[in-house]
TrEMBL record:
Keywords: Kinase, Membrane, Phosphoprotein, Transferase, Transmembrane, Transmembrane helix, Two-component regulatory system. The keyword Transmembrane helix applies. One of its GO terms (biological process) is cellular response to phosphate starvation. This is histidine kinase.
Amino acid sequence: MDPNYILIILAFCSVIWAIILCFRVKSIEAYFFSAFIFFTGLWILVLGMSNLSRDADRVIFLTRFCNIFGILLFLSLMFFSSAFSERKRIIFENVIIVVSLIFIFLSFILPNNEIYKSIIIYSDKPAEGVLGSFYIYYCLLVLTIFGVSIYYFITSYRGFAVKKRLQIKYLVFGLFLFIFGAVFFDVVLPILGKEQLLSLGPLSFLFFVIFASYAIIRHQLLDIKIVIQRGLIYSVLFSFVAVVYILGVLILGLIFQGITNLTMIIVGLLTTGAGIYGIPPLDRFFRRATDRFFFKDKYDYSEAIYELSEILNKNLNLSALLQKITDKLLEILRPESLYIIVPGQNLIFSHDKIIRKTKVGLSAELTRAIEIHPDTVLVISDIPQELDALPKGETGERRRSLEQALSFGADYGIEMAIAIKSGTHLSGLVALGKKLSGDYYTSEDINLLKTFACQAAVAFENAQLYEKVKNHSKELEKKVVERTENIKSLQEEQRQMMMEIAHGLQTPLTIIRGELSLLNNQIKDKKEIGRLEHNIDHISRFIYDMLRLVRQERDGEERKTVFSLSELLEESIDNIKIITEDKNIDVAGNIEPDIDIFGDKSEIEELLMNLASNSLKFMKPGQRGKIILDLYRKGKEAVLIVADDGIGIDKKHISHIFEKMYRISNESFPDKKGTGLGLAICKKIVEKHGGAIRAESRLGQGTKFIIELPTRSS
């Protein structure tokens, strides 16, 4: 058989191995390692195709790609060695990457005479020729990258643990044999004009495969045993299909004395049938045969106990706990299958990393069988002996429960069950299938599982309690949200009702005021009419304030702009002076200029006028009064003060004056009454603008309102 066909088969196997490794092992080292194998496979494939080609242009074309894949495989090796050695990238690496990219670009654009100075095509053997000057620099580049990779491994060797040292030792030795063979047979000899041994370069990759496989199987390199196993199996299955196809072509060619379209169709159908019906049983057979070899591992008992204890102590979330326990037990014991069952919640977590809610949990009899079993670990294969040991003719609970356990083991392919008990109550059950290696569970395995079960009981109880508390919290949050929505709905209904009442009262009050105006012209004694008009005005103000308060609670921020609070306060002082001109009240202000805020100017103006009118209303009768409006900046806030020397407020009322409908009854000044809504409106306006309002007052000495509003810069 032509050795170049062996190269192509080796290339396909390498590519399959790389793809499986990339998808099965999630680590940066594994990605670079799979890239190295992948590009090596492509390099071998292109080299084999080049050796089979009998056309000069095609040989040169494939040689260009051979150069490119050669550079990429060496770069992947350098990245792998850097990641494996846990090094940070250095400037020299970046230089190598740039130079490599230049060489890849040159491999595409260089003229043919730089690739081959001359080339001779043979009909019965690979082409021969004199390589161009490009290959001298190419050789220097790949040797430099290889040297950097080996340097990384060697300089990091002393800092690694014994296990990682052994991994590096076998890995580097395999790499050295492969790279030495590749460079010597495919770079050095062709430069010297010796191309007869080109096929030996790619075949030296087998040295790397042998030593890397040994490091993987014996010393857990990257922990990719399953990848190696699947890669070898798929390679054999691929070879099986290829052999079936080739034999079919040869046999039918002899029968029909030549290859025709009909023979190719028949061969295709036979190969398809062989693939459909032959590959699944072969796959199962090879897996069983190789499981004993790949998964016959020993583990460190103390380390295993520590790792399981750490998982149990650090995880409260039940799903995370089940997943991490499953991962660790699969890693330590290597069973074919694993199930973790939580009877109280009818949950089952399996080796395929999916948590399911089962409709039917463990039967009461099976649960009872596990609970009353004297040992924590129930070995299913020992149950027939326990049944034989029971008195003949006994049909009691013990026999029924053991038969249930035996049936459970048969249904799920279970070899061993570990009861996680809290007292006599079953908190969980860990069920293990047979070992992948085909070995029986040892006394060390059983002791490990017993210790694990004792610690897991507390962890399961804590996790389930945590789940209950979390679910209860979610229910409470849901009820709070629902209650809040109900309150909001009731408040909205209340506001709507207030608006309807207010609007409903405005029309009759307007009519009454009109009728009083007519009576006022007809009746000479106007005292009673004046009192009625005063009360109607009071009701009108109350209705206006009520409507204003409702609108404050509803309105958004669509009217807010940036404006000067300093200028607005100066205008307000001028307006207040006009109002108080004939009331024996002085109005003064101390205003810091250039204070801007973001807000609704008309609402802030209303706030000032409400507070000023409040001060006017509660001045001491018969005495000269004073209203002072101050404005200054304090950090990122504007501080606005409206103060008076009026009758003041008793301290027992201060905390309530901003509440809706709260009115102070003052026996000394019974005519000083408000609607109970003015200050509530002021508070709403301030809060809408992101500020705060408070009052300071002493009875008989006056009142001061302090408002703090965010300035434009904040």
